[in-house]
Write a structure and sequence with these properties.
The chain has 170 residues and is of the alpha+beta class. It has four helices and four strands. It has one domain. 30% of the residues lie in helices and 22% in strands. The longest helix has 19 residues. It is globular and about 45 Å long.
Length: 170
């Protein structure tokens, strides 16, 4: 299986960044398990679209005003890349907030609070850095900026990249 970081790779520039990483041979051949600290809570299981999604990988979680938002990569049977899936939990009850199996350019903030969208996007980029390495991630982001992709990035993407030390144009 090829790897794509949950669809949050720099939209507009995401497709560019992904294709650049494929061309450079920097994307892993298989999905590596997250550390045990990133175990998926069983409370999410009831909200995973069944039977379409055959497996998931937890990318990150954040809590806003008593609600916890979990970003997962959801894999369908014939899906080699996975798609973004956000499930929230409150008092052990889950709710599907966002699922984008088509990979359309849609900001998380259209479905969850912006502060949560920013944190989950940051987690997605950190996950990508774990997979491809910081140097290669930095090179890909820099190239996307040079090619003008930044004008298409969502607020949450720009914010997350700034947290990682990038000088992102407004």
């Amino acid at each position: 299986m090829k790897y794509r970081s949950s669809g949050r790779w720099l939209r507009g520039g995401k497709a560019f960044l992904i294709s650049a990483l494929f061309c450079l041979g920097l994307l892993a051949v298989s999905v590596v398990s997250r550390p045990s600290t990133a175990q998926q809570p069983s409370s999410l299981d009831a909200c995973i679209p069944q039977p379409l999604v055959v497996r998931t990988e937890l990318i990150g979680s954040t809590q806003v005003e008593g609600e916890t938002y979990h970003l997962l990569i959801a894999y369908e049977e014939v899906d080699e890349f996975g798609s973004d899936l956000i499930i929230s939990t409150v008092n052990g009850q889950c709710e599907l907030k966002f699922w984008n199996p088509m990979g359309d350019p849609i900001p998380f903030a259209d479905f969850i609070p912006q502060v949560a969208a920013r944190q989950l996007t940051l987690a997605s980029y950190q996950h990508a850095i774990e997979k491809v390495g910081r140097d290669d991630f930095d090179k890909s982001v820099a190239e996307a900026i040079v090619q003008g992709a930044a004008e298409f990035w969502f607020d949450e993407e720009k914010w997350a990249l700034r947290q990682l030390g990038f000088d992102i144009p407004e």
